[in-house]
Amino acid sequence: MKETKDHAALSEAFNADEPRVNWHDETLWFVRQKRDRAAQTIPDWELLRETASRIKHNVLSNLHDYLLQFEASARANGVIVHWAADAREHNQIVHAILQKHKVDRMVKSKSMLTEECHLNEYLAENGVEVIDSDLGERIVQLAKEPPSHIVLPSIHKKKEEVGMIFHEHLGTPTGMSDPQALTEAARQHLRETFLTRRAALTGVNFAVAETGEFVICTNEGNADMGAHLADVHIACMGIEKLIPERKHLGVFLRLLTRSATGQPITTYSSHFKKPREGHELHLVLVDNGRSVQLGREDFRNSLKCIRCGACMNTCPVYRRSGGHSYHTAVAGPIGSILAPNLDMKANADLPFASTLCGSCTNVCPVKIDIHDQLYKWRQVIVREGYADTKKTMGMKAMTATFASPATFKLAGKAGRWFMRHAPFAVNNRLNPWYKQRDMPAPPKESFGEWYLKNRKKKHE
Amino acid sequence: MSSRDSILAAVARNQPARLPLPEMPAFVLGEGDPVEKFAAVAVSVGSKVFRVKNLEEVRQAILKEHVGAKRIVSGFPQFSDMAETSVAPGTDPHTLADMDLAILPAQLGVAENSALWVTDAQLPLRVLPFICQRLALVVRQQNIVPLMHQAYDVIGAQDYGFGTFIAGPSRTADIEQSLVLGAHGARTLSVFILEE
User: Fold this and answer.
1) pTM of the entire structure?
2) Mean pLDDT in residue range A11-26
3) Is the CB of residue B176 less than 8 Å away from at least one CB of chain A?
4) How far apart are CA B66 and CA B179, in angstroms?
5) Would you call B76 an interface residue with chain A, using a CB distance cutoff of 8 Å?
């Protein structure tokens, strides 16, 4: 079932409908502008970013001890802690907990980690029905699609399409497209789900080594509705989600939602420390490649990510190619530096899906050098032999041309001659540059020739 | 080797040389009165704000605002004439499904984002502020702090089982970025700032 098309091919499909691409672009830019306004109201914004970045550097440099401290504190609080080396073990652990409680229907709030591990598919194969309770996630789940954005899972869907999906699956009247009415329909449908599920799975935004508690942020209240009504609560987190002390939450909660949607904070920031009396609280700590990334000096900083999505909203490539073109759980610039660590061959195209403009780095609340890492991944991917062969050959030809002045002059002359006398040689579908552009008019002479004629003689 | 031990060994092997934890800077709210700021932000995120002198004024406002509310649960014993003020330990949280209104005290409020802090000290059942159709939170004016940093200073080493910051009614913008209040949690939030 693995997607075989690369980012360029998937973007081309997304770009077939130009007005829709423009709508997608503008919608995400609107979110980016909200982020800017929120950041500008904080006099200490840059100080906050710097502090968050340095706290995360400390976490990554001391992760071993923080993990041990967190595990001990959480256990002392009565939390059952599990460790999963990879996606497969994570899925098995979750399934075993559900089996122990004889649960075959579960409600889940947003967790990109479970997307990364393909938990829903795994549980479905094992006869467990999962209902995603975040509205955006429920929409894409009913549409049988993955989320296209980590914070706004159904940002690529129009309200009329949501109306059609709800009509088909939830029995709402045909032609309904009012967001208020559609949200109300989802509220009624999911309320019944919350009230009838005995197990709830949630993600984790931050986990505190000092206290063993973890924090979940939602605007809808879906994580809380699921967790507080179920007999069993399973929370799943990547090992990089740790922060040292409770007081550090102040820094990260101020940055997260302002960066994500421009809100001052999410409606609910819930701190789970101990299980409810007489109930089980499980916490699954997942590695799945994170310890490897920790050892890659050039890419280690990607583990500072707090999953706000700001880099996607600002990315000119993401906005015009859509989240699905990245064919991984986490799309956009940050996803493109995380994914090659998990599977370099399958994701070799992603670091090239960028203009390297650096806007992602500028908005990142924890100061990850995203565009530098994209550039560095390109070099690793070429060195390891995973680059697109057309691109490698083109680059080799270009290197040879630039390395020899004689070849460079000849190539320029030939290019100009062809564009003048045989424009069809470049204005065709075989030339990828021509796809969305017209070729420029060829100059009569090169700069070298012009210089020789007009300047060099005068100075002699 | 167990997964736990192999993960810990890999982390120990791959983590870089120790970098120090930064000192927490003294962050500032900026100009203006924190209580005014709190009220303005609360309104901007869809809450309704009431400045009141005492609990009696809270009662009057609630009777006026929430005329249709049938089942009310409250953390204030003073409201026992109109609300259930004690939830027996071990009560099944599902029995709160038909609750119209919850009226609860909040320990503190945060001016920069209008978040209100409640823990199991205020919550007989954790699901209470989420499952109710409408929520009212009462905070003392003197307990409004400027920023999240001061909030965590006050919270300190509190030993709760569950605690949450609530800032506004439940909301979503998952359909074409159109803001809708009342996603899965409370549809409305009334915030009472108590002078006394």
Assistant:
1) 0.93
2) 95
3) yes
4) 23
5) no
